[in-house]
């Protein structure tokens, strides 16, 4: 008996109404974009991250105070609320803060700060403040906001040395947000290179590289980090220290990416269309660039994005322990060192603000990565 | 061919006005849209159509095993002569995870699937998975259940059953797996077997063997079969009656000879033309049906085949829903071309 | 099967040798050695060591020899005598220091591991079965936050809360009255009470991770045709759930066993420093900072070994769980 399939079996996506028709014939990147657009959480995360990075780039401008500027009069001052309505119920068009005066808690005799409703400082925009170099190039002293002397503006309170928490968080974000990017960037390059070699050449080279990766992954990450960080000499310039840490992170982080690259490389190498290209006489280089890379570059972007949160947490942890970024440079982990003591958290809970921003960043990166992962696989339901 | 006498007999299963809606990102999909058919004891009804026409959903909805996203309405009245509790019972009215429908699944109505590799779990032995149904419906005694399972394996032509019983699905060949699947489905002597593309994943010689096996077992056990397929060759070999589905609707329904020698609907005709025939003109290209099936989302009331139909009547076919027309007592069609030949009843 | 296990074990040996190399290299990396950090400590205390004294101390400790020689001496002693060297800080053999902390370290790690599987697997199943329900959103949200919170800071917050609610920050693993007390029911109970926070803190991020893996796996498995087959046989939803999707979804979870051990050590190290737990974390930290090289090296080696063994076990378990691999060795 003869039973040939007589119907054309097609993916249902192909028969579609006019509205989505263009989606079926668009390029891979457009498909990813279209699917990504549907992922609301990922889109919102992208916006938040963009804002965070913009703040980091313009940190010196946004922060009212410099990294080291302190005022011993205001040690452990609580956050000041931005207000529009004063104590008498009068509305002010310009937001303002009250001055602080210190009192003693009648029970514990501890020094506390209360708002001084007699002194009202309206927020001023584009004020002159500490000198800095805008984008590291143009010397200027313009700051986004500030209040008139002798007033102070501590939006998120101050630390144990009387330094403005808000300014330090914004300035610290330059380190905390860039280290993972640079670290992942370097891991990406190493991973692509080594994973590519491993997947492309195969054989003994592949086995050797796989063993090496296995070994690196056998170390519990944090003790390895600790060991390597302990090897960073003390009292070195900030830039060198930054480089050391980035290199340590990249050194440990590349193995994951190399595995992804290798796996994809091997899977794609045996795809029919790649074999077809080979049979047709297409050169190796062209096969890699035209057929292999587009096949997994989206997976790599996803894997890279998902690797960032881990690096942020690691940097925070290392700096928190004093093994990462060290004073005078600052990062969110350094800022959290003050939260190490339980009394500090109990008495000055605003010292946990950096924690909030760490969680926000890590969450948004995770959501972004998830959204990208879903988008990178346009045919997956 | 079914006789007039068979028509007056009470059907084993009577499906009326079955509709299945699925919520998707792009809107509500009317996957099955008002399907009626009857299945009689010992007979085979073929449900034929392209992939995505709703034939699988239709067959699965009878025992309520569609995913919960599927919103099913209509009725599927089951009438078992042997069991009082199953006289005129509407299966669709039963809660889909409840005890009553579960006591029917596997015992009265069994099902075999297209892909015997994925239909078995790779985690457990074939024997374990066959025994499962027996242990639920026939006996609590594991030894007895194993004996029944071994008998069933022998019945479907698997040799060396004792050894095969303890093997895993990956140790079976495709044809063997489908045999095991059939033995599992028939282990509780069902009255109705739903076969969803039972041979699509098999190669041609194995296909013939498996179909032959199904026919033999049908004769022996006297069960009815609902055969879902896209392959008219299988329909011709296996079925007593055929329902042709297109875009969620049955467009033509008739005894098997009627369909092959006197097709009415342009879609059925197209299907038959696109089928290779023994002794046909070898130099001639097979016909194919132009165009593609539209997505059943937000479609206006009109003939779903309109865009692809060679005989369409503009202003008629694309303006209203197509009623069912009875060409003869057993032959019905949904097409405006035959509306005047109607013997009265239309809906 | 046995053949497979032997092959896997043999593959581990070169890995272990290389690991020991790297470990020794890493502990050599920090500038200076134990003698220089010791003399710095001494001079801080007011005693200045002369160069001759330092050289003599180096010679005594064998630190004046080339690195590779030190490595071979260390390795030879480990292999021949089980001697891991001498801890300068503790002034006793490394093996004794390890012995002192190993029991509690393993107890905390294993309890954490049990905790994370016991919590993550049921939640993973629940959130997959009830996808898009309020419970799913709740647990998924929680696991996202769990993954995003640095665990050492969670430790501080929990400590603060327990201090607020119970008047005891539950620092350490024992209340002061039990630290040196002999083992008794009360001491075990006290230990259990103190372990709540560390276990939650150490286990949280991996638990969150596991919940997400389990949920994803379950969602895949729940839509498999074999589940539909089981349903068509008349099985109840509950028996289907546990027999088919759960069983299949556990496979990748088992394969994470080895890494899970590694991540527990990682989490435990830093949490232990914050919570002041008498386990290996703080010891290791101080050994690294104080150039107590043999102690630090032994710990690193030990942990890497445990991870390798964990991976080995999960590979073997995975092979044993997978009928395809298992039947290959059945030898028909």
Short summary:
Chain A has 381 residues and is α+β, with helices and mostly antiparallel strands. Chain A has two domains: 228 residues, MetI-like (MetI-like fold), CATH 1.10.3720; 74 residues, no CATH class.
Which key phrases capture this entry?
heterotrimer; A: 381 residues; alpha+beta; MetI-like fold; 2 domains; three-stranded antiparallel β-sheet; two-stranded antiparallel ribbon; 13 helices; 5 strands; 13% strand; elongated; disordered N terminus; C: 332 residues; mainly alpha; two-stranded antiparallel sheet; 2 strands; 78% helix; 1% strand; globular
| Biggest sheet details of chain B | 8 strands, mixed
The total strand number of chain B stands at 12
Radius of gyration of chain A: 27 Å
Helix fraction of chain B by DSSP (H/I, runs of at least 4):
25-40%
Structural class of chain B: alpha/beta
Helix content of chain A: 55-70%
Strand arrangement within the widest β-sheet of chain A reads 1-2-3
CATH architecture identity of the domain at 1-42 and 53-99 and 241-275 and 286-347 in chain B:
3-Layer(aba) Sandwich
Q: DSSP helix count of chain A?
A: 13
CATH homologous superfamily heading of the domain at 1-42 and 53-99 and 241-275 and 286-347 in chain B: P-loop containing nucleotide triphosphate hydrolases
Structural summary, described in words:
The complex is a heterotrimer of chains A (381), B (347) and C (332). Chain A is α+β, with helices and mostly antiparallel strands. Chain A has 2 domains: 228 residues, MetI-like fold (Orthogonal Bundle), CATH 1.10.3720.10; 74 residues, no CATH class. Chain A is built from 13 helices and 5 strands. A 3-stranded antiparallel beta sheet of chain A has the order 1-2-3, with no helix packed on it. A two-stranded antiparallel ribbon of chain A has the order 4-5. The N terminus and C terminus of chain B are likely disordered. In chain B, a hairpin with a 5-residue loop joins strand 11 and strand 12. In chain B, 46% of the residues are buried. In chain B, helix 5 packs across helix 6. Chain B has 12 helices and 12 strands. The two termini of chain C are 13 Å apart. In chain C, 78% of the residues lie in helices and 1% in strands. Chains in contact: A-B, A-C, B-C. Chain C: Keywords: Cell membrane, Membrane, Transmembrane, Transmembrane helix, Transport. Chain C: One of its GO terms (biological process) is transmembrane transport. Chain C: This is ABC transporter permease. Chain C: It holds the Pfam family BPD_transp_1_N.
């Amino acid at each position: 008996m003869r039973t040939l399939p007589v119907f054309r079996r097609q993916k249902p996506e192909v028969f579609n109404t006019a509205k989505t028709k263009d989606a079926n014939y668009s390029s891979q990147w457009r498909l990813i974009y279209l699917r990504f657009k549907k992922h609301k959480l990922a889109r919102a995360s992208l916006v938040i991250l963009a804002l965070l990075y913009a703040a980091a780039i313009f940190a010196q401008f946004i922060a009212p105070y410099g990294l080291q500027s302190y005022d011993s009069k205001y040690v452990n001052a609580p956050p000041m609320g931005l207000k529009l309505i004063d104590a008498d119920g009068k509305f002010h068009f310009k937001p303002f803060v009250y001055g602080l005066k210190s009192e003693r808690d009648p029970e514990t005799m501890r020094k506390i700060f209360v708002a001084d409703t007699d002194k009202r400082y309206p927020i001023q925009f584009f004020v002159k403040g500490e000198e800095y170099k805008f984008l590291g190039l143009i010397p200027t002293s313009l700051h986004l906001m500030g209040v008139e002397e002798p007033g102070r503006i501590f939006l998120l309170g101050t630390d144990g040395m009387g330094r403005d928490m808000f300014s330090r968080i914004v300035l610290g974000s330059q380190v905390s947000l860039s280290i993972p990017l640079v670290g992942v960037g370097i891991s990406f390059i190493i991973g692509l290179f080594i994973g590519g070699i491993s997947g492309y050449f195969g054989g003994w080279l592949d086995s050797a590289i796989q063993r090496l990766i296995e070994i690196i992954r056998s170390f519990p990450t944090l003790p390895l980090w600790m060991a390597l960080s302990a090897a960073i000499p003390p009292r070195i310039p900030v830039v060198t220290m930054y480089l050391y840490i980035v290199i340590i992170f990249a050194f440990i982080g590349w193995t994951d990416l190399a595995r992804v690259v290798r796996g994809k490389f091997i899977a794609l190498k045996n795809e029919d269309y790649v074999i077809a290209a080979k049979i047709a006489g297409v050169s190796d280089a062209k096969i890699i660039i035209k057929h292999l890379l587009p096949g997994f570059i989206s997976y790599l972007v996803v894997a890279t994005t998902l690797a960032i949160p881990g690096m942020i947490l690691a940097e925070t942890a290392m700096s928190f322990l004093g093994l990462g970024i060290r004073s005078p440079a600052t990062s969110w982990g350094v800022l959290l060192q003050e939260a190490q003591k339980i009394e500090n958290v109990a008495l000055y809970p605003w010292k946990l603000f950096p924690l909030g921003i760490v969680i926000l960043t890590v969450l948004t990166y995770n959501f972004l990565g998830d959204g990208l992962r879903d988008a990178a696989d346009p045919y997956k339901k | 061919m079914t006789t007039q006498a068979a028509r007056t007999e009470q059907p084993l299963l009577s499906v009326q006005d079955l509709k299945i809606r699925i919520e998707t990102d792009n809107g509500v999909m009317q996957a099955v849209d008002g399907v009626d058919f009857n299945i009689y004891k010992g007979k085979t009804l073929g449900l034929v159509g392209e992939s995505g026409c709703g034939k699988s959903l239709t067959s699965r909805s009878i025992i309520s095993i569609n995913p919960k996203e599927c919103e099913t309405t209509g009725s599927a009245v089951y009438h078992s002569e042997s069991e009082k509790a199953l006289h005129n019972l509407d299966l669709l009215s039963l809660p889909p995870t409840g005890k009553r429908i579960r006591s029917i699944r596997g015992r009265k109505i069994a099902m075999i699937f297209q892909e015997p590799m994925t239909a078995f779990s790779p985690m457990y032995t074939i024997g374990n998975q066959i025994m499962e149904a027996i242990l639920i419906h026939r006996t609590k005694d594991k030894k007895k259940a194993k004996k029944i399972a071994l008998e069933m394996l022998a019945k479907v032509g698997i040799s060396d059953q004792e050894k095969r019983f303890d093997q895993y699905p990956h140790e079976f060949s495709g044809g063997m797996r489908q045999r095991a699947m059939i033995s599992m489905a028939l282990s509780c002597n069902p009255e109705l077997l739903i076969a969803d593309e039972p041979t699509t994943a098999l190669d041609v010689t194995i296909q013939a063997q498996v179909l032959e096996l199904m026919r033999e077992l049908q004769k022996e056990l006297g069960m009815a079969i609902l055969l879902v397929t896209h392959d008219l060759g299988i329909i011709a070999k296996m079925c007593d009656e055929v329902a042709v589905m297109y875009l969620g609707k049955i467009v033509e329904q008739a005894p098997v000879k009627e369909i092959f020698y006197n097709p009415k609907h342009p879609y059925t005709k197209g299907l038959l033309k696109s089928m290779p025939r023994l002794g046909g003109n070898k130099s001639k290209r097979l016909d194919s049906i132009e165009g593609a099936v539209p997505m059943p989302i937000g479609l206006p009331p009109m003939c779903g085949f309109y865009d692809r139909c060679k005989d369409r009547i503009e202003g008629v076919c694309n303006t209203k829903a197509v009623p069912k027309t009875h060409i003869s007592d057993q032959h019905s069609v949904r097409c405006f071309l035959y509306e005047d030949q109607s013997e009265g009843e239309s809906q | 099967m046995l053949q497979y296990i032997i092959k896997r074990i043999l593959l581990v040996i070169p890995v272990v040798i290389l690991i020991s190399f790297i470990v020794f290299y890493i502990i050599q990396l920090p500038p200076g050695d134990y003698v220089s950090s010791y003399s710095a400590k001494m001079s801080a205390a007011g005693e200045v060591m002369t160069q001759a004294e330092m050289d003599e101390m180096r010679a005594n400790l064998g630190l004046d020899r080339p690195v590779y020689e030190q490595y071979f001496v260390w390795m030879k002693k480990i292999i021949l005598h089980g001697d891991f060297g001498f801890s300068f800080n503790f002034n006793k053999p490394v093996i004794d220091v390890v012995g002192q902390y190993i029991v509690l370290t393993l107890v905390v790690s294993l309890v954490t591991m049990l905790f994370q599987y016991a919590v993550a697997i049921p939640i993973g199943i629940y959130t997959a079965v009830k996808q898009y329900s309020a419970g799913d959103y709740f647990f998924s949200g929680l696991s996202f936050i769990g993954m995003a919170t640095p665990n050492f800071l969670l430790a501080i917050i929990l400590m603060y809360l327990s201090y607020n609610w119970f008047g005891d920050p539950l620092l350490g693993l024992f209340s002061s009255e039990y630290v040196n007390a002999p083992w008794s029911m009360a001491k075990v109970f006290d230990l259990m009470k103190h372990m709540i926070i560390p276990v939650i803190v150490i286990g949280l991020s991996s638990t969150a991770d596991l919940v997400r893996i389990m949920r994803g796996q379950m969602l895949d498995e729940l839509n498999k045709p074999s589940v539909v087959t089981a349903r068509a046989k008349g099985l109840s939803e509950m028996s289907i759930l546990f027999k088919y999707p759960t069983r299949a979804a556990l496979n990748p979870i088992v394969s994470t066993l080895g890494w899970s051990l590694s991540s527990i050590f990682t989490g435990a190290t830093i949490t232990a420093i914050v919570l002041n737990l008498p386990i290996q974390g703080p010891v290791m930290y101080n050994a690294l900072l104080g150039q107590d090289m043999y102690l630090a090296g032994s710990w690193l080696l030990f942990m890497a070994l445990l991870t390798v063994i964990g991976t080995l076990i999960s590979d073997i378990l995975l092979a044993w769980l997978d009928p395809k691999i298992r039947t290959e060795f059945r030898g028909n």
